[in-house]
Amino acid sequence: MDFSLLPVFIAITEQGSLTKAAEYLHMTKSAVSKKLTALESHTGIRLVTRSTRHLQLTEAGQLYYSWLKKAHQAVLDGQDALSRYRSDVDGVLKISAPTVFGSLHLAKLLPEFLQCWPRLTAELVFDDKLTDLVGDGFDLAVRIGELKDSSLIARTLSPCRSVLCASPAYLAAHGNPQDLTDLKEHNCLFYSYFQAGQTWAFLHRGETVRFTPQGNYRANNSLALHQAVLQGAGICQLPQFIAAPDIRAGRLQALLPDYYLPEHHIYAVYPDREYLPNKVTVFLQFLQEKLGSAGHYQQDYEQPLSVNV
């Protein structure tokens, strides 16, 4: 069999048309069409239904693609394994990260990392929704909170603490809540991507207690909520990697000293591969150095904060 036909079929499937596949492969459309015809002739099965405007995999084509994709990934893994025998770190490192944490912290670290490895190219993609690392071609992701995909390998980088807070101006106008039930009288701002759903959970005297916040503002971006809290719009639960400098400077106040928000963690996750590429290995080491207990990040952002009563 001519194995050069297989990447062409994969490209046709993933690009969605012969024209786009030809552009992706730097081939002519007619050459791509001939290779598809040759592959179907070899298999003896129609893999793609074609018309002038539409291309669709047959049921057999979909099955064949699913197996070829696995084989293609195995080839890439083999190339990654060989790269461990090279002293240089190069290629493209594709990283997925949460929008706010990535913007505030990870983006500041990448230039330093690339100075250490000048032959490496980094592609940093921000997304607050879980990405498909393998399907979307990511080498590594930084994730915060509960990990649900058991097929991934995870390394803990740092704790991730949150704090309930408000501005001094808001508290002067509306009072400082002393108990969880007092929050019913306050305007609570809410992050709409909370993994725990529409409630806030606290640890109080050894038990988990919950509160359903009510307020006039919710957003899927913590920086938007941060700005609203600073401007006195209400009470909000924010990660300390956003709020800690404002609390230490007095621009915000931490609330409810007897109610503790759950502590999450920041992880580096990557596909379960027998051999890690050098580019991933050195980046993991770099993240552990910068975000781990020996780095400045935890001292600056993840230490317990004093609460104003």
UniProtKB/TrEMBL annotation:
One Pfam family from the record: HTH_1
UniProt-listed GO biological process terms: DNA-templated transcription
DNA-binding listed as a keyword: yes
GO molecular function per UniProt: DNA-binding transcription factor activity; sequence-specific DNA binding
Gene3D superfamilies, per the entry: 3.40.190.290, Winged helix-like DNA-binding domain superfamily/Winged helix DNA-binding domain
InterPro entries xref list: LysR-type_TF_proteobact-type (IPR058163), LysR_HTH_N (IPR000847), LysR_subst-bd (IPR005119), WH-like_DNA-bd_sf (IPR036388), WH_DNA-bd_sf (IPR036390)
Record flagged with keyword rRNA-binding: no
This protein's UniProt keywords: DNA-binding, Transcription, Transcription regulation
Domain HTH lysR-type: 1-58
Coiled coil: none
Organism superkingdom: Bacteria
Family per similarity comment: Belongs to the LysR transcriptional regulatory family.
Protein name as it appears in the record: LysR family transcriptional regulator
Organism, as annotated: Morganella psychrotolerans
